[in-house]
């Protein structure tokens, strides 16, 4: 079933996951995205101008993937998702509650007027969070 975009589309990304509901909940709670559509196999999360689609990894591929607890960060990927947050400290707490993790405060840095911190979602997908430093 096709649905209309809740917000104008400017940019987007796709994250593949074994557990779509768990990974989706992470991005909703940590980055403040809104679930605009969900069905078996995928969820559409949006904010003003941005869309993140969480798609289920096909079962024949998922069978060969083991997500550890805590998840091992997948740092050998060529792309890193970057999302804005109002507070890195709050995002760190939300990430931990949702099965992910942000680096500790001493590993944060400043970049182009933002406070920046890397982390990962509940399946180890690397993500960077940026808080406006102004």
Automatic annotation (TrEMBL):
InterPro entries with a match to the protein in the record: Glyas_Bleomycin-R_OHBP_Dase (IPR029068)
Designated name of the protein: Glyoxalase-like domain-containing protein
Native source species: Piscinibacter terrae
């Amino acid at each position: 079933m096709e649905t209309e975009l809740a917000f104008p589309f400017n940019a987007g990304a796709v994250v593949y996951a074994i557990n779509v509901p768990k990974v989706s909940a992470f991005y909703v709670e940590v980055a403040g995205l809104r679930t605009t559509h969900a069905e078996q196999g995928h969820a559409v999360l949006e904010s003003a101008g941005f869309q993140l689609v969480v798609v289920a990894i096909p079962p024949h591929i998922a069978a060969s993937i083991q997500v550890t607890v805590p998840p091992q960060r997948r740092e050998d990927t060529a792309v890193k998702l970057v999302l804005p947050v109002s507070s890195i400290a709050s995002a760190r707490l939300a990430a931990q509650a949702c099965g992910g993790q942000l680096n500790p405060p001493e590993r944060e840095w400043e970049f182009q007027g933002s406070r920046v911190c890397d982390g990962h979602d509940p399946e180890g997908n690397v993500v960077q969070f940026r808080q406006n430093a102004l």
